[in-house]
Amino acid sequence: MRPYHIDRGMRLELRICKHCYEGDHGNDQKTAVTQDMVACAEQVREYKDLIGLDALYITKVTEGDPGGAEALDVIVASIEGDQVALSDTQLVMEDGDGNMLVYPEPKDILQVLTRNLNQIQEQTRQDVDVELSPEGQALIA
Q1: Which among 18, 34, 123, 136 could disulfide-bond with 132, CB atoms 3.0 to 4.6 Å apart, if both were Cys?
Q2: Which pLDDT belongs to residue 1?
């Protein structure tokens, strides 16, 4: 499987922090990038059939949500100090054989989603471009 190519039977789940998306944390850059990820994912979901994608879920989580995954039960964790910290931002891809790829970095998530939009654009006359924020553009430049 090529890293950004979608095969038949693939499902994706974008998991993001609801507070980052809504700007509650006061980090304008993270809010802009999170909103870019959601806008791209919504557009990919709208045209998913053109690239053979079965489903794309967008899950907005808040602190204390048990697991937080809506469809694909994979959560990235790291060690911060002496505690386990669960990632509140990730893109999970599952192929038809059940293999999973997890992208925890916003840069990688945006690259995967924008490449999927490029694949969709090749299949339709509709304009499927998403106008990214300056922060999102800089991240994937």
Answers
A1: 136
A2: 44
- C-alpha distances (whole Å) from 52 to each of 18, 25, 47, 49, 57 are 28, 36, 9, 5, 15
pLDDT at 120 over 90: yes
How many structural domains are present in the chain?
1
SS (H, E, C) the chain: CCCCCCCCCEEEEEEEEHHHHHCCCCCHHHHHHHHHHHHHHHHHHHCHHHHCEEEEEEEEECCCCCCCCCCCCCCCEEEECCEEEECCCEEEEECCCCCEEEECCHHHHHHHHHHHHHHHHCCCCCCCCCCCCHHHHHHHC
Q: For the whole model, what pTM was predicted?
A: 0.86
Residue 4 lies in a domain: no
